[in-house]
Amino acid sequence: MCGITGIYAPGHDAARLAFFALYALQHRGQESAGIAVSDGGTIKSHREMGLLSAIFDEEILSDLTGYIACGHTRYSTSGSSIVVNAQPLLETTEIGDFSFAHNGNLTNTDELRDTLAPTTILQASSDSEVLAKLIVEAEGSMMERIVTVMHRARGAYSVVLCTRDELYAFRDPWGVRPLCLGTYGDGGYVAASESCALATVGAKFERELAPGEVVRIHKGGVESIVMATTERKALCMFEYIYFARPDSTLNGKTIYMARYAMGRELAKEYPVEADVVMAVPDSAIPGGIGYAAESGLPYIEGLIKNRYIGRTFISPDQSMRDRGVQLKFNPVVENLKDQRVVVVDDSIVRGTTTPRIVQLLRDAGAQEVHVRVTSPPIKHPCYLGVDMATYDELIGANYSVEEIRKKIGADTLGYLSLEGLVRATGRDEKEMCLGCLTGTYPNVPAAHRNRALVG
What we know:
The protein is α+β, with helices and mostly antiparallel strands. The protein has 18 helices and 23 strands. Strand 9 (180-184) and strand 10 form a beta hairpin.
C-alpha cells in the first residue's frame, strides 16, 4: 500500500515536486518516507521514520538539488518498521548508481534471495531490497536488467527507479498495484501511485502504465516496453474499496464515483426502514451518500473524525485506549438522537472497531443501528502487499453474517455482493484481484499462502 513517485523535470526542483507528490500519497503509508535526487551526476537522498512533515524542511529540501527524483512513503508488509527499511534504496552497479522505490509484496522473496551472490550484503529485511539487488546483479543496460528481473519476480510490484540521468517506472505483469504517468511542463514527466499526486504538482495525467510495462524517460524522450505474458490482469479491488484517494482515477473512473455506485448497489440489495443514512469517515463517505441517494433517505453527518489523531509516536495510556473509537470519532448527538440510523462502512476486517462504533451511536441516542458494508465479507488474507490479518483474525472467515451482526451489536447487517461490487467499479471481474474476498489469487504459490494461514 506504499506511495511512490518518480520525477523527471529538467530545469525544475525535482525534490520539491516529489515532496508534494508524496504529500498527496501520504494516505498510502505513514511509517517512513524518503526522497532521492540526481543532478545528472550525483544521487543524494534523505529518508527517516515518520510523516513527511516531520522529516523534510526547507534546509533538507534545499540540499537535495537535481532534476530527477524518486520518492517513497512506506506502509510495511515485508520487513519491519525500522529506518533501514525506509526507501528509496540506493544501489551501486558497474553501469552507475540508482535509487529505488517499491510498492507491493513479492511472493517468491525467499527463492530470489537464495539466488543472490554469496557476497551480497543485505542491510534491510524487506523484499524491496531483494528486488533491487537482483537488478544490481543482472546484466546489460538498465532496461535489460529490469526486464530480466521482472521475468523472475512473482507477486505485486510497482516501482520507480532513478539513475543519474534517467527515470524508469515499471509495473508487474498482473498490475496488482496502480501506477500512472503524467507530463509536466515542457519535457517533464511524473510517475506516481495515484493520479491525485499528478494533480497536486500540476502535472497532466496521461495514462496508467499497463501491467508488465517498463517506461524509460531520458533526454531523448520516452521509451516503453510491455512484457509478453500470459498472466491475467489483477488490480487489487481494495484500491476501489479503501486504499486510493477519492479524487484519484482508475480505468477512467474516479474512485469517488465507484464508491458512490457501491453505495447505490448496496441500497438496492439491502434496503431497510430507517430515518437517516450516515457513513464512517472518511473512505465510506461516498458509499454513504450513494446509499442515501438510492434509498431516498436523508444523508447526515453522524460522526466527526479527529483528523489529527492518525498514527502517533505518543501512545495513549490504558484509560484512553479503553475509550476506543472515541479517540478518533465524536458523535453528532442532535443528528442521531431517536433516529433509526443506517451506518455505511467500507469493510469489516477483524471486527474490533465496528462494535465500538455501533455502541457509540447507541450511546448518542440512536434508536436503531443498521450496518451496511460496501464490500463482501473479507474471508482470506492478502499476500500481495496488504496487512489484512490472518485467518484466525478475520471475522468474516470464522463467523456467518448473522453471527457477525450479533457480535457487532447491530439491528441488521448487510454486505454488498461481489457482483454488485464489480458492477460499481465498471471493470471486468477477470481483471481484478479478489483474493481476500474469494480465496482465488493471481500467482500466489501454495507454500506462500500456507505460511500466512496462522500469521
